[in-house]
TrEMBL record:
Gene: folK
Name of protein: 2-amino-4-hydroxy-6-hydroxymethyldihydropteridine diphosphokinase
InterPro entries: Hppk, Hppk_sf
Catalytic activity, reaction form: 6-hydroxymethyl-7,8-dihydropterin + ATP = (7,8-dihydropterin-6-yl)methyl diphosphate + AMP + H(+)
Highest taxon listed in the record's lineage: Bacteria
Top EC class for this record: transferase
Origin species: Mycolicibacterium tokaiense
Keyword entries, A-Z: ATP-binding, Folate biosynthesis, Kinase, Nucleotide-binding, Transferase
Domain 7,8-dihydro-6-hydroxymethylpterin-pyrophosphokinase: from-to ranges: 85-96
EC assignment: 2.7.6.3
Pathway assignment: Cofactor biosynthesis; tetrahydrofolate biosynthesis; 2-amino-4-hydroxy-6-hydroxymethyl-7,8-dihydropteridine diphosphate from 7,8-dihydroneopterin triphosphate: step 4/4
Keyword ATP-binding: yes
Amino acid sequence: MSTVVLSVGSNLGDRLARLQSVVDALGTRVSAVSPVYETDPWGGVEQGPFLNAVVIAEDPDLDGRGWLDCAQALERAAERLRGQKWGPRTLDVDLVTCRDESGDVISREDGLTLPHPLAHLRAFVLIPWLAVDPDATLTVTDAVVPVSRLLADLPAGDRAGVRVTPLVLGVAA
């Protein structure tokens, strides 16, 4: 059994429908979905705000590479084009962390870096994650750190750029 934390975001087209497409495609594998947040763009590229959420999912048959393949398939289904780094996108599905029976999956393979190397710097990942898992931890530089501490260490302006919305992602029963 593996459990993955996915950060999903969109700032093009029907942003909410793009996020919902991830939840729908994962179906009964979804164990938790955060509230939806509107967030300022990250990375210095001029663009519109994102809708972001965190989805936690489980699958006995997927490992880190399997989850990456799944995430990329979801992006392709949303017609994601990989153009400008940190630029606008129809759908971004990032693997934040993957855990199996032995703990956090650590990977530095070509194309698969786990845990996500920038997750600890992104309020738009940490805030939604804490909303569904207040005891979450993340391995950062070989140390397991509470996500709440990582969030507290971010600048106040970064945290203020993540605003909860009344929007909700539906989960299949």
